[in-house]
Amino acid sequence: MAMMQIKNLSKSFDDLQVLRDINLEIEKGQVVVIIGPSGSGKSTMLRCLNLLETPSGGEILYQGNDITKLGKLVTDYRKHVGMVFQRFNLFQLHTVLENVMMAPIQLNKMGKTAAKEKAMELLGKVGMKEKADVYPDTLSGGQQQRVAIARALAMDPEMLLFDEPTSALDPELVGDVLEVMKRLAADGMTMIVVTHEMGFARDVADRVIFMDEGYVVEDEPPEVIFTNPKNERTKEFLSRVLNE
Amino acid sequence: MKLYWSKTFSTLGPSLIQGIGVVIYVTVFGFLVSLVISLLLAIGRTSKYKILNRLLVLFVELIRGTPLLVQFFYIYYVIPMLCDAFFMLFGIKTGLQIKPVVAGIIGFGINYGCYMSEVIRSAIMAVDPGQREAGLALGYSERQVLFKFIIPPALRNSIPVFGNYLVMMIKDTSLLAMISVQELLLRTKTFASQTFLTVEAYTLLALVYLVISVPLSRVSVVLEKKLKHRGK
Ligand SMILES: Nc1ncnc2c1ncn2[C@@H]1O[C@H](COP(=O)(O)OP(=O)(O)OP(=O)(O)O)[C@@H](O)[C@H]1O
Ligand SMILES: [Mg+2]
């Protein structure tokens, strides 16, 4: 059984329909990249997957359970599915180390020493160990994003959602973040990544999904979608972004 | 015109120093109460229950729409009478009285609490929504997010404004002369009416207020600069 099954998912904001009848299955260990023009509903879909947005219709099954029916227990579900945001969203009044070890201590009842040890290990993994004791606003965007990834990993998630993790970064800082994400993918993390980094999609994705006007228009391995897209809209979008 | 400064200093001076004690006492407790009330009001206003929200808005409007001095009178004179009348229904004589200083602290607590709750509220709304989303995405509940990631930066950003309110409260303690609190103005008034040293007395009074509030204002400016350092 797929790790996550999305069935007939729809979402409207008042009378604006943003997601239309989305059906997807995501297998454990897969890296799924979502591309599409601005306003096509990529962020909205990602945010529905951890219920930061409440779907208007359809089901989202995680390990067979419909998460749209969880009610208050949604907080438990969210511990298993981490999220990395375009604008990092680190906790400004806390040091880098605190940002990473706080949630495991407060939500997973992890001991302080163990949590700190683990946080340092994760910060090492993303190359931010030296900055453990500084505050987020002293870091570059790329550094903040790597800390944000460590923070998400500290909860031992089974799946990670990325919403344009490199879009707010200066071009020279994008590489470091993508490098960390590549390593995560290689370690077998299940990832859903909304991005405009076509290089990352080509090299790392198992599947690339093209969204337009709230529909999943195409869902293919990168070799297929980049060389031989079936849909006219996919072709047009790709020729536009690849020729930039 | 001949001015009698040394007499004013030697007689009114010691009395004013005692008065400063009263002012500090009322301000410290009044401010603490107003902090608690403002926080409760601001948190109450984040509630999803519409009725609670409406009631709190109404209360804040009621307080902000009436003068502080009237509120002091109300608490000092009217509330005890209402209590008396209420308990008389059950045949109990209370003879309740509120000490002027206590009426002052309650009045300041409620009045400033309402104004400061608006400060905290707008600071809460100014916190980047990304902080909330990051907390939720990690598995914190809405309530945990509010207390861990939204209220702390909101309070921090409110501190400079609170500093201004503190200085204002110190100056507003002069209103308490009207309900017979032995603060600075009442002492000066009594002295002036007994000695007719009106110019000296009120000049000294103004100086005392300046000596208290100017350094405090400075402190809050310095604090504001320090706090700017981290976060926004
Ligand atoms: N909270 C909201 N309220 C109302 N409309 C919204 C809300 N969030 C998103 N929308 C609308 O939904 C549509 C899809 O937005 P979404 O952010 O999902 O697009 P996107 O594909 O992520 O675009 P981008 O590439 O610009 O990030 C847009 O028209 C947007 O204006
Ligand atoms: Mg988006």
Q: What's the shape of chain B?
A: flat
Bound molecules: adenosine-5'-triphosphate, magnesium ion
CATH class of chain B: Mainly Alpha
- What is the global morphology of chain A? globular
Residue windows where pLDDT falls under 50 for at least 5 positions of chain A: none
For the termini of chain A, the CA-CA separation is: 40 Å
CATH topology of chain B: MetI-like fold
Short descriptors:
heterodimer, A: 244 residues, alpha/beta, six-stranded mixed β-sheet, four-stranded antiparallel β-sheet, 9 helices, 39% helix, 25% strand, globular, B: 232 residues, mainly alpha, MetI-like fold, 8 helices, 81% helix, binds adenosine-5'-triphosphate, binds magnesium ion
Explain how this protein is built.
The complex is a heterodimer of chains A (244) and B (232). The longest helix of chain A is centred in the C-terminal third of the chain and has 16 residues, at 171-186. Chain A has 244 residues and is α/β, with parallel strands linked by helices. Chain A contains 9 helices and 10 strands. In chain A, helix 3 runs parallel beside helix 5 (141-153) and helix 5 packs parallel to helix 6 (171-186). Chain B has a single domain, classed as Orthogonal Bundle (MetI-like fold), CATH 1.10.3720. Chain B has 8 helices and no strands. The relative contact order of chain B is 0.16. Classes of the chains: A alpha/beta (244), B mainly alpha (232). The structure holds adenosine-5'-triphosphate and magnesium ion. Magnesium ion is lined by residues 42-43, 163-164 of chain A. Adenosine-5'-triphosphate binds next to strand 2 and helix 1 of chain A.
